UniProtKB/TrEMBL annotation:
It comes from the Eukaryota. Part of the cohesin complex which is composed of a heterodimer between a SMC1 protein (SMC1A or SMC1B) and SMC3, which are attached via their hinge domain, and RAD21 which link them at their heads, and one STAG protein. Component of cohesin complex, a complex required for the cohesion of sister chromatids after DNA replication. The cohesin complex apparently forms a large proteinaceous ring within which sister chromatids can be trapped. At anaphase, the complex is cleaved and dissociates from chromatin, allowing sister chromatids to segregate. It comes from Danionella cerebrum. It is found in: Nucleus; Chromosome; Chromosome, Centromere. Keywords: Cell cycle, Cell division, Chromosome, Chromosome partition, Coiled coil, Nucleus. Residues 228-258 form a coiled coil. One of its GO terms (biological process) is sister chromatid cohesion. One of its GO terms (cellular component) is cohesin complex. Residues 264-349 form the SCD domain. Pfam families: HEAT_SCC3-SA, SCD, STAG. One of its GO terms (molecular function) is chromatin binding. Residues 1045-1055 have a biased composition (Basic residues). This is Cohesin subunit SA.
Length: 1228
């Protein structure tokens, strides 16, 4: 026998390790085609290969290689088709791989445990990659070849070699030891090899079982012959063959038991999900291949228990393994006990958090239903029914297949054949459509008909495309004994029919399902065209009749009027069906006359718009009908407006109704049609002016007049932009827009909330449309139409947002006049408020409204996070992209406003532990997180923020005297939250700027009232100098630092030398040629409380003419400061330290060392501080960062060795009979 090695492969090229094993075997027994040469008896081989027989060289040692990767052996080409050679060549093809071999001598001289220990010691675990986990086509092919090699090896050796009591014993023993290894690579690879080896043995056992049955039948047939024809020799041979087959069967069973008990029962609950998945996948194969031996509760229980696995990929393997079993209906009797025991778990998995698992669970439940109608209870079915409304389309489609199988599949072939001859309402689909309508109504999700249709589309197309039957159910009277469709059933059927028409015409899922429209295949495109032609030809005739029958029902009419948009309108002319077009237009006109609901009127307007498309020949016919209708409505509107204006306050309800109904219809049509030639703006403007002057205009008329005027302006703008407008046209439109904006602004103070909301939305829209972006794209001629809102209008818009958006739920309920709102109304009200806020925020991010106005929005971020957090966050992100410095100043302004309000409420002596102060600090912390991790990008913005915060804290001195802290000093504690965003050298610059506002007396204070200053200084000194103060004790960190601080402390500002004043004041006035945005001012508000303490503002108003260097007025008059502040501060800091160092040299020699140390640190490279050190280190707050932040990936652990101890065996073989589906245990 040729010595054969057991190599373990490690891929050093990928720094990974592998543990694949090439199984040793007697190669001499196989010829080139893999056939067995001789029949080998049992017994361990005792003879070595002859000495003169050359051992086969490893492919790694060969220099030559064929282009297809097959190596040359002994100068001859080997057959690359045999998997034995393919695996060997595949091993050699791994470039740079490290081969560690376990030779046959090691098996003779060492125990398996010693071999595995030696392999483990030599194995390099620095990388977690090995062939089975490495991605790429090469390694995928390697895994396939490795598994296929094991299968082919056993198949080729199944008649003799596997019974030699040596090869299989050796392989199984080694695999069992490796599967218990601490090294994941060994354990994973050996488990895969063992499971595939088991699968191969199952195939052998199955063949043996078949041969035994055949032999037994031959023996029985021969024995039953008469004595004269019976062949005794043949009987003896058959008996001997049967005995040998039985012995082989026993040996195979012993091998399978060794693998199952030694490897499977331990590895199916391995800590690694991939290993568990391998075990479950293979046991499913065993049950399918050899159901007589494996399909019983002793093996099924392992699959049932693993349904509770924490990893989705393992649960997925369980479900797929069970699907292969339930597909075969002959196996259902053997699965009955398992179904009863684990059915509840399988049904619950239809709601699995991983969609792939949920889809497979639904398919498995469908198979169970198909196999046995009684296996699932009504409650089980209902749990699957509602999934047809899932937003995830694969889940919904799988649930649709279940619903189709349960409700819409016919099982009586004779009855089906009889019904197939009927058509219409008596067709087979008649009752099924009624059942579908009933299901839709009972599901109580009436707004999701499109989702229901989409879920059933793949499985029930024949039913859903039976529009003939649906129309007959709606139009024809029921026959005797047939149940009449009620009003709710008719509405539901019309809605479902419209959804099926849309699905067939558009051939893509509804909004919310899928990632968008995909490209249709040629077959799908042909089906779409055929469906569209079929529905057009039938419904062109039926639609006028349906409208005639249901013309008084607004809901039904609104749905039916959606159908024409899915027609192939060429059929009207090509099919000579103009009479049906006239009938449709007549019915639409009747609907317009009868209804005032906006939904119905908009549907009519949209239908006219589609039919008037210029690409169709029917356009002229439809346009004439539309013009006649508009002429009639316009005349009626003009007369009713005149009557209303003349009667004034004496107008009755009829006059108001006439104006309102006509105005609604005209507004609906003006939305989709250009009605400017009828000049509707004039009468609408007259109504609005009368309402403003008299204050008695009904709110609905005002709302509709505003909307109609808005449409009129937009259509005029479209005409101007598409043509070559004259100057008179521009002036006329500007005059109209200006007057309308003034009316809308006046409507903001209307007593009726709907009028105010409508005016606000139209103001925001028009300011967006007629903003500076109107002239972009080479349209400079439209410059006269650009409108920029003045400060008064901006403040009014902001006040409206504050008064109508940021309100508490109690205030909202009171505004609803005490009516109890259900959940739907609350959601609708919130949606409306979100739209109002979004409209205003768009003005901010497009630089139409000044950015300081956003301060009042940003300050609400924490309080209204659940309702508007996403809108405010996006606004903040866009504002930062527009101008980082301005955005930073706006953020600090919002915090200052909150702080001023707190001072007003609680006085100057704030309780720093109160929830209000903590709320401001928390808001500041959230703001700080939005700056992200790139400190270089936000350097100037963060520095500007600190500068504004410092000036705010010190701008108002304490009226009691300089020995008392400024009233706003506590704001420095809020400012601490932004210190971590400063670079180290910038911290020193900001600290130096802080010291300009501090007196020597302030530096020496340690009382609690000065703790905000101490905390802020410490936050600036963190990572810098060693001198830092203790916030808790009020003393210095070290006596040395305290002494140095007292010696180096600056004299009070009023005692500075003249030269210092001139130098420190001059840095603010440098580089005055730079053009940057000006300073931010707190916006004037009329409907909210003042943003700062009025007493402080009155008593300590700074004189702008005599502003000190570094003060707020000085900053406001120096716009270039924003871009150069850090550099100027650095230069001044160097000069100041030089002067202070000279003074120290005169008084103390030790000061020289401190000065040199400070100057050296100024030149240090920037150190990027960890954003997690900013405050409290809460990892969950990292989700507050915007797109300018980076993702933090923690380094992987270098220790790849796993625990050797296996988890306790929580499973009991008798647990299959327990009632608790979870078995009262935690799997992992």
């Amino acid at each position: 026998m040729i010595n054969s090695d057991f190599p373990v492969l490690q891929d050093s090229s990928n720094d990974g390790q592998g543990d694949t094993m090439s199984l040793g075997m007697s190669v001499g027994e196989l010829d080139d085609t893999g056939e067995v040469k001789t029949k080998k008896k049992r017994g361990r081989p005792g003879k070595q290969a002859s000495a003169n027989k050359k051992a086969r060289r490893s492919p790694v040692d060969k220099g030559g290689r064929r282009p297809n990767g097959v190596a040359h052996q002994n100068g001859e080409d080997t057959d690359p088709g045999t998997l034995f050679e393919v695996v060997k060549q595949g091993r050699s093809a791994m470039q740079g791989s490290l081969i560690r071999t376990v030779r046959i001598e090691m098996f003779r001289n060492m125990q398996n445990a010693e071999i595995i220990r030696k392999m483990t010691e030599e194995f390099d675990e620095d990388s977690g990659d090995y062939p089975l986990t490495t991605t790429g086509p090469q390694w995928k092919k390697f895994r396939y070849n490795f598994c296929e090699f094991i299968m082919v090896l056993i198949r080729q050796c199944q008649y003799s070699i596997i019974y030699d009591e040596y090869m299989m014993d050796t392989v199984i023993s080694l695999l069992t030891g490796l599967s218990d290894s601490q090294v994941r690579a060994f354990r994973h690879t050996s488990t895969l090899a063992a499971m595939r080896l088991m699968t191969a043995l199952v195939n052998v056992a199955l063949n043996l079982s078949i041969n035994q049955d055949n032999t037994q039948r031959q023996y029985e047939a021969e024995r039953n012959k008469v004595a004269g024809k019976r062949a005794n020799e043949k009987l003896e041979l058959l008996l001997e063959k049967r005995k040998e087959l039985q012995e082989n069967q026993d040996e195979i069973e012993n091998m399978m038991n060794s693998i199952f008990k030694g490897i499977f029962v331990h590895r199916y609950r391995d800590a690694i999900a991939e290993i568990r998945a391998i075990c479950i996948e293979e046991i499913g194969v065993w049950m399918k291949l050899y159901s007589d031996a494996f399909l019983n509760d002793s093996y099924l229980k392992y699959v049932g228990w693993t349904l509770h696995d924490r990893q989705g990929e393992v649960r997925l393997k369980c479900l797929k393994a069970l699907q292969t079993l339930y597909t075969n209906r002959e196996l259902f009797p053997k699965l009955e006990l398992f179904t009863n025991r684990f059915k509840d778990r399988i049904v619950s998995m239809t709601l699995d958090k991983e969609y792939d698992v949920a889809v497979e669970a639904i398919r498995l439940v469908t198979l169970i239903l198909h196999g046995s109608e009684d296996a699932l209870s009504n409650e089980d079915c209902e749990n699957v029914y509602h999934l047809v409304y899932s937003a995830h389309r694969p889940v919904a489609v799988a649930a649709g297949e279940f619903l189709h199988r349960k409700l819409f599949s016919r099982h009586d072939p004779q009855a089906e054949e009889a019904l197939a001859k009927r058509r219409g309402r008596n067709s087979p689909n008649g009752n099924l459509i009624r059942m579908l309508v009933l299901f839709f109504l009972e599901s109580e999700l009436h707004e999701h008909a499109a989702y229901l249709v989409d879920s059933l589309w793949d499985s029930s197309q024949d039913l859903l495309k039976d529009w003939d039957c649906m129309v007959e159910l709606l139009l024809e009277d029921p026959v005797q004994g047939e149940e009449v469709l009620g009003d709710r059933h008719e509405s539901a059927l019309i809605e479902l029919m419209v959804c099926t028409i849309r699905q067939a015409a558009e051939a893509h899922p509804p909004v919310g399902r899928g990632t968008g429209k995909r490209v249709l295949t040629a077959k799908e495109k042909k089906t779409q065209i055929d469906d569209k032609n079929r529905l057009t030809e039938h419904l062109i005739v039926a639609l006028p009749m349906l409208l005639s029958k249901y013309q008084a029902d607004a809901e039904k009419v609104a749905n039916l009027l959606q159908i024409p948009q899915f027609f192939d309108l060429e059929v009207y002319s090509s099919g000579r069906m103009e009479k049906h077009l006239d009938a449709l237009l007549k019915q639409i006109r009747v609907v317009v006359e009868k209804h005032t609901e906006m939904e119905v009127l908009e549907a009519c307007s949209k239908t006219y718009s589609i039919l008037c498309s210029e690409e169709y020949t029917i356009m002229n016919r439809v346009d004439i009908g539309r013009s006649q209708l508009i002429d009639e409505l316009t005349d009626r509107f003009a007369h009713s407006v005149e009557d209303l204006l003349q009667e004034g306050d004496e107008a009755d309800d009829d006059d108001i109704y006439n104006v309102l109904s006509t105005l609604k219809k005209l507004t609906a049509f003006h939305n989709a049609h250009d009605l400017t030639k009828w000049d509707l703006f004039k009468n609408c403007y007259r109504l609005l002016k009368m309402g403003i002057e008299q204050g008695s205009m009904p709110e609905q008329i005002a709302v509709q007049a505003l909307q109609c005027s808005h449409y009129s302006i937009l259509w005029q703008l479209v005409k101007i932009t598409e043509g070559c407008p004259s100057k008179d046209d521009l002036v006329a439109l500007r005059r109209v827009v200006k007057s309308f904006l003034a009316v809308c602004q006046q409507c903001l103070s209307n007593v009726n909330t709907p009028v105010k909301e409508q005016a606000f939305m139209l103001l925001c829209d028009l300011l967006m449309i007629f903003s500076h972006q109107l002239v972009s794209g080479g349209r400079d001629g439209l410059e006269p139409l650009v409108f920029n809102p003045d400060g008064t209008l901006q403040n009014e818009l902001l006040n409206f947002v504050l008064d109508h958006v940021f309100i508490d739920q109690d205030d909202e309920n009171q505004s609803m006049e005490g009516d109890e709102e259900d959940e739907a109304n609350k959601i609708e009200a919130l949606h409306k408020r979100r739209n109002l806020l979004a409209a205003f925020c768009k003005l901010i991010i497009y630089d139409i409204v000044d950015m300081p106005s956003a301060a009042d929005i940003f300050r609400q971020y924490m309080k209204y996070y659940n309702d508007y957090g996403d809108i405010i966050k996006e606004t903040l992100s866009k504002a930062r992209q527009m101008d980082k410095i301005q955005c930073a100043k706006t953020l600090i302004l919002s915090l200052q406003q909150l702080f001023n309000e707190l001072i007003q409420d609680q006085g100057p002596n704030l309780d720093r532990t109160s929830s209000h102060v903590s709320g401001i600090k928390e808001l500041a912390r959230r703001f700080a997180l939005t700056f992200g991790l790139d400190q270089i990008k936000t350097r100037e913005a963060v520095a500007t923020l600190h500068k504004d915060g410092i000036e705010f804290a010190f701008k108002v001195p304490n009226p009691k005297g300089p020995e008392y802290p400024p009233p706003n000093l506590a704001f420095l504690e809020v400012l601490c939250e932004f210190s971590s965003k400063l670079l180290r050298q910038d911290k020193k610059t900001v600290h130096s700027y802080l010291e300009k506002f501090m007196t020597e007396y302030m530096m020496e204070r340690r009382e609690d009232i000065w703790l905000p200053l101490i905390a802020y200084r410490n936050s600036l000194l963190t990572g810098g100098d060693d001198d830092r103060l203790s916030v808790t004790t009020g003393a210095s960190s070290t006596s040395k630092s305290s002494t140095v601080r007292s010696k180096r402390g600056r004299p009070p500002q009023q005692k500075r030398r003249p030269d210092e004043e001139s130098i420190e004041g001059s840095w603010m006035m440098r580089n005055d040629t730079l053009q940057t945005p000006g300073a931010l001012h707190t916006p004037q508000l009329t409907s909210t409380v003042l943003r700062e303490n009025p007493r402080q503002a009155a008593d300590h108003m700074p004189d702008q003419d005599s502003s000190e260097p570094g003060s707020e007025p000085d900053y406001m008059h120096n716009p270039q400061m924003q871009m150069s502040w850090l550099d100027q501060q650095k230069m001044e800091e160097v000069n100041r330290k030089e002067r202070v160092g000279m003074n120290y040299m005169k008084s103390r020699s030790g000061g020289v060392r401190q000065q040199v140390r400070g100057l050296m640190e100024d030149d240090a490279e920037p150190i990027f501080e960890d954003v997690m050190m900013s405050s409290r280190g809460q990892l969950e707050d990292m989700n507050e960062e915007f797109e300018d932040t980076m993702v933090i990936d923690l380094p992987a652990s270098r220790n790849r060795r796993e625990r050797a101890e296996l988890r306790p065996d929580f499973f009991d073989s008798t647990a299959i009979m327990e009632d608790d589906p979870g078995f009262g245990m935690q799997m992992f």
